[in-house]
Design goal:
single chain, 194 residues, alpha/beta, Maf protein, 6 helices, 7 strands, globular, binds thymidine-5'-triphosphate
């Protein structure tokens, strides 16, 4: 079996390459709107499956397709990507000095199999000032990110500690994804080009 990553995210490509997986990419564009009354785990699972299924529609025979979706949850509510500066600053200030959850769903779709799982990580921010949130917006980093921050980038300075999977917060939980790839007979740890 050969793997396709259904993602336009450079972060997910880097994470999957980090564990020595060989894959092609089918960039897909899925509507990520939350349905009325939809809870966080069903939501991320549905979107990850939709990405994998859209990628599978473009796939060749003998290919299985991986899709993922990451979102931020505060007090049980889904916090998506920011619309503008005010939205991003408000999101960041609501996360200030508190613990929120980052959940990533991963889905794998093939001709004879569909699997999905969700990984939840607690992330605790130190206290932030409105001014530093405004300066952070001006860097351009928060714009395409759930929760308006990137733990792997400049936003690292906001994070006091995490409890869970770092790679899941960035966009793809590597330990759990490797287990899923084994089930689908996809090799990891290719080393000859490293
Ligand atoms: C919380 C957090 C989110 N993010 C990112 C990960 C995800 O890419 C993004 C959430 O959006 P997603 O919709 O999960 O992914 P995407 O739109 O970037 O890519 P695609 O749908 O094509 O696969 O936020 C970080 O990079 N770092 C973080 O610390």
């Amino acid at each position: 079996m050969k793997l396709v990553l259904a993602s336009a995210s450079p972060r997910r490509k880097e994470l999957l390459a980090q564990i020595g997986v060989r894959f092609d990419v089918n960039a897909v564009d899925i509507c990520e709107d939350v349905l009325p009354g939809e809870s966080p785990v069903p939501y991320v699972t549905r979107v990850a499956l939709a990405k994998a299924e859209a990628g599978y529609a473009l796939a060749k025979p003998q290919q299985v397709v991986l899709g993922a979706d990451t979102t931020v949850i505060l007090d049980g509510n889904i916090i998506g990507k920011p619309q503008n500066q005010a939205d991003a600053v408000n999101m960041l200030m609501s996360l200030s000095g508190r613990t929120h959850q980052v959940i990533t769903a991963v889905a794998l779709v093939g001709s004879e199999q569909t699997h999905s799982f969700v990984v939840t990580t607690d992330v605790t921010f130190r206290t932030l000032s409105r001014e530093e949130c405004e300066l952070y917006w001006a860097t351009g980093e928060p714009a395409d990110k759930a929760g308006s921050y990137g733990i792997q980038g400049l936003g690292a300075i906001f994070v006091d500690h995490i409890n869970g999977s770092y790679s899941s917060v960035v966009g793809l939980p590597l330990s759990e994804t490797a287990e899923l790839l084994k089930v689908a007979d996809i090799e990891i740890w290719h080393t000859e080009e490293m």
